[in-house]
Design brief:
alpha+beta; six-stranded mixed beta barrel; six-stranded mixed barrel; 28 helices
């Protein structure tokens, strides 16, 4: 415990250090005077007596230092001295300090901003109790990706499993017409089962959740609303419970309010109401073969692994396939951890971006290291004098590292402020579907990361200049008189500039490839003409909900004519089912003349578009053969269909598909193929060709079965001003009924842009990082060439005095910069060949070694670097020989 007593003693001495030093100095003075007096009494002269006393007593300064070390905190005091001296030196050089701090703030801020995203999205645990127990359940089909779960299968999964504590379901993308609370409007909602919120640990802000059995078909019409809807429509009044909400002409009783913080999978934030699944009037709900967009989420029992749950669900689905072979043969259950399902593509994508932004920090560090090297050369005389006076290499290194760490700390603090503002701005402005975006922000982990990289950066860029300065021979430096040095002293700076150029070139190539990818995607033919086309949703008044199919069709025709006559509208078509690049729906079919497959899972699949007769012309989809629908293809006419070229080539190879007959399983009807049209890239401009399900089929909108014809539909409109014509359609709609709603207007160009949101996000970020790298590297080469030109002022003066022309001087100085740039670019190109493979999965229509990108980016970097070199080179040509020859 001796060390504890020593620690306590030193702590007690801290407040009395100055008094202790004064007392010690007074005591030493008294001892010296006493010894001097003894020598005087022995007959010595005064000077000899004083010298003898000092020799006998010893070095006063050394003794004071030894005594102070025994009672004080030597390292802390030296650190405080270094900090005070460093602050004074930085204050005396505001230009250097500002440049270094801003460069580091950019690098540290960019890294901190992206780390805050990674922290919020990847590192933080999901905001649910025991999130590792949560899984997504999907139906798996042979040769197809996982799909939605039929409601009957969900009920059996819920009942027969042995490994889940609970299983619940949700069905999003449901729109309701709200009336009775002001102007009629469309609200987005979700169908859920009881237990859905409980298994996610959601506590209602008001009221209660769905009771067991309240979600069954025929249950009471209850409803849960979100906190946002509660505030918007009821002013957050606490008496909202028990009030009635009218959706699609039906009254629902409000039983609870879901808190605003709840947002499963980042997909529920725009939803406003939660309705029990049993209230869905879809006639296909109890069809075991109909998925209908239903998803299931389960919570594993404690101690149950994913593998055990998969084995259990394999048993359940095997039993269902035996019991219901027609619907469930070949149907399995995919058990996917919720975290994996939620993050999806984003994990690898964010890590690639984090690597890219790391290059920006490296460039910033190299830039500041280059500045410090130049500054240390100017301070060589100062450090040589300090070394001559006894300062050791360690002391000099520590002083310089203290300065670099201070610069990094100031730059890091500013960088954190920049990242806090920039991150939220970027999340609001950049096009992205980033999950868990609401959880991105600055917290303790982000601050620790910023502090760590600031400290690491300070040591990284300060160590090389510090060691280089400490190793210099003081005598040689003092002989030079501080005039600079030979060309060999510029090699380290040249190497740093080359490294900057190499790093910048790699980032620029990555950004160039991403830009080329985005350009290639915009040039991909989606299969339709996106210009001048708008799409939106439409719903008849709730009073039509229980109308006869004939009355609904008559009302739809009236709406069609009204919209068609609105100013600016060139064409109108209703649609139902799949929407290009947005939603999908499928038909099951088999070819006439072939035996009916034993089960639905043995049937053929096709993406289903139910459309009006003007749809093909409005969308600009090419007709390959036969004809498209006409107004005569209505509910009274023979059933017809049009297929795309993929379906025709797959199922009728080498034949004419027109005239073939198909059995549609869901309606039981036989349709005749009357035409073949071009293929539409339903699954995305870049991924459609990779999907297993690509065949497409079109059927007439008015030939929808009576049980399927509904009061709502999608609408596509062609107009020269698609973004402006929606207002005239809204006015025409309001003239028909105040309870008739149009909503969700989007141009098809916006639909395409939305499908490319992830790529646009990555391209914009890569572009920002590359732009920062370009600016930082140009600043770096400018600073180094300026310094080298300044160091060679005397040499340039001699050259000019001996007859050198300005062009000769310009060529010499530019040559220095050109050599550094060329070396860096060669290294950068070699590195890019390897590193760009990391973003290969993000590219489309361009290779990682695309010659056009490599040449364009290399030329851009070379031009910027030479422009940065030209300014100091031009300044060097104006040197006055007389002044230069006197230069030190």
């Amino acid at each position: 415990m001796n060390w504890l007593r020593e620690l306590g003693r030193r702590i007690r001495m801290l407040p009395h250090r100055r008094q202790f030093d004064a007392d010690l100095e007074e005591e030493m003075r008294l001892h010296l005077e006493m010894r001097q007096q003894e020598h005087l009494q022995s007959g010595m002269e005064a000077g000899d007596a004083r010298a003898a006393a000092r020799r006998r007593f010893g070095n006063v300064t050394v003794l004071k230092e030894i005594s102070h070390m025994a009672w004080g905190w030597e390292r802390l005091e030296h650190l405080a001295q270094d900090v005070r001296y460093s602050l004074r030196m930085l204050h005396q050089n505001p230009g250097f300090t500002a440049t270094a701090v801003i460069v580091l703030a950019i690098g540290i801020g960019a890294n901190t901003a992206l780390f805050s995203v990674i922290n919020g999205v990847l590192l933080r645990p999901l905001p649910y109790p025991h999130p590792e127990q949560l899984v997504i359940l999907r139906e798996s089909k042979p040769n197809f990706a996982t799909g939605s779960v039929s409601y009957p299968n969900f009920l059996d999964w819920q009942k027969d499993n042995r490994t889940f504590a609970s299983v619940a379901m949700m069905r999003g993308n449901q729109s309701f017409t709200l009336t009775g609370l002001g102007e009629a409007e469309q609200v987005d909602g979700i169908f859920v089962s009881s237990g859905f919120f409980e298994q996610l640990g959601v506590i209602p802000a008001l009221g209660r959740m769905l009771a067991p059995g309240e979600d069954r078909i025929g249950g009471a019409p209850t409803i849960l609303i979100t906190a946002g809807f509660w505030k918007r429509k009821f002013g957050s009044a606490t008496d909202v419970l028990g009030k009635s909400l009218t959706l699609d002409g039906r009254d629902y009783t409000i039983i609870g309010v879901i808190p605003a913080t709840f947002d499963l999978l980042g997909s529920l934030r725009s939803r406003e109401v939660y309705v029990p699944i049993g209230q869905w009037s879809n006639p296909l709900l109890m069809n075991r073969a109909a998925g209908l967009g239903i998803g299931a989420i389960g919570r594993l029992k404690p101690g149950v692994s994913i593998e055990q749950a998969r084995a259990d669900m394999e048993r359940v689905t095997r039993n269902l396939a035996a019991a219901y072979p027609d619907a469930d043969k070949g149907i399995g259950a995919a058990v996917i951890p919720l975290r994996k399902w939620e993050l999806g593509y984003v994990q690898s994508f964010l890590l690639v971006l984090f690597g890219a932004v790391g290059f920006v920090l490296l460039i910033a560090c190299v830039n500041v290291a280059s500045l410090l090297l130049a500054r240390s050369s100017r301070r060589a005389h100062e450090f040589a004098i300090r070394a001559a006076l006894g300062a050791g290499q360690g002391r000099i290194v520590r002083q310089l590292l203290t300065e670099s760490t201070l610069i990094a700390a100031i730059g890091g603090s500013l960088g954190v402020l920049l990242s806090a503002v920039g991150t939220q701005t970027a999340l609001r402005m950049l096009p992205t579907t980033l999950p868990r975006a609401a959880e991105v922000g600055v917290d303790g982990h982000v601050l620790f990361f910023a502090a760590a990289i600031s400290l690491g950066a300070g040591i990284f860029f300060g160590l090389a200049p510090a060691l280089r300065t400490a190793r210099r021979d003081p005598q040689e430096t003092l002989k030079e008189g501080g005039r600079g040095g030979s060309g060999t002293r510029h090699r380290a700076q040249g190497a740093l500039v080359a490294a900057e150029m190499a790093l910048a070139l790699v980032l620029l190539i990555g950004a160039g490839l991403m830009i080329r990818t985005l350009a290639a995607l915009w040039n991909v033919n989606p299969g339709f003409e996106a210009n001048k086309v708008m799409t939106f949703g439409f719903s008849l008044p709730p009073s039509m909900t229980n109308a006869s199919p004939e009355a609904i069709r008559a009302a739809l025709r009236e709406v069609h004519d009204k919209f068609q006559s609105a100013p600016g509208v060139q064409g109108v078509a209703f649609s139902w089912g799949a929407v290009p690049l947005q939603g999908d729906d499928e038909w099951l079919f088999w070819i006439d003349g072939q035996p009916k497959p034993a089960s639905e899972n043995d049937m053929n699949w096709a993406i289903d578009y139910v459309v009006d007769y003007d749809y093909l012309q409005i969308m600009g989809i090419p007709l390959k053969s036969g004809r498209f629908f006409t107004a005569r293809d209505d509910e009274h006419a023979a059933r017809v269909a049009v297929v795309d070229e993929v379906l025709a080539d797959k199922f009728f190879p080498g034949q004419n598909a027109v005239g073939k007959r198909l059995h549609l399983n869901s309606t039981g009807e036989i349709v005749e193929v009357v035409g073949v049209v071009g293929h539409v890239k339903q699954w995305g401009l870049d991924t459609d060709d990779k999907e297993a399900l690509r065949a497409q089929m079109y059927t007439p909108f008015m030939q929808l079965p009576d049980k399927a014809i509904g009061t709502g539909a999608g609408v596509v409109v062609r107009s020269d001003r698609p973004a402006m014509v929606f207002e005239s359609i809204r006015q025409a709609n309001n003239q028909m009924s105040s309870e008739q709603v149009v909503f969700g207007a989007q141009t098809m160009r916006e639909v395409i842009a939305s499908s490319l949101a992830e790529r646009r996000f990555s391209t914009i970020l890569f572009g920002i990082f590359a732009g920062l790298a370009l600016v930082l590297s140009s600043v770096g080469i400018y600073g180094v060439v300026s310094y080298i030109a300044g160091q060679r002022t005397q040499e340039i003066g001699i050259r000019v005095a001996l007859g050198a022309q300005r062009a000769d001087v310009l060529r010499v100085v530019l040559g220095e910069g050109a050599k550094m740039t060329a070396v860096g670019m060669v290294i950068g190109l070699l590195a890019a060949f390897g590193l760009t493979r990391l973003i290969a999965k993000l590219l489309f229509g361009v290779s990682t070694t695309d010659p056009l990108t490599l040449v364009a980016v290399s030329s851009l970097l070379a031009l910027v670097a030479l422009a940065a070199c030209y300014i100091p080179a031009r300044r060097a040509t104006r040197v006055d020989p007389i002044v230069a020859l006197r230069y030190e």
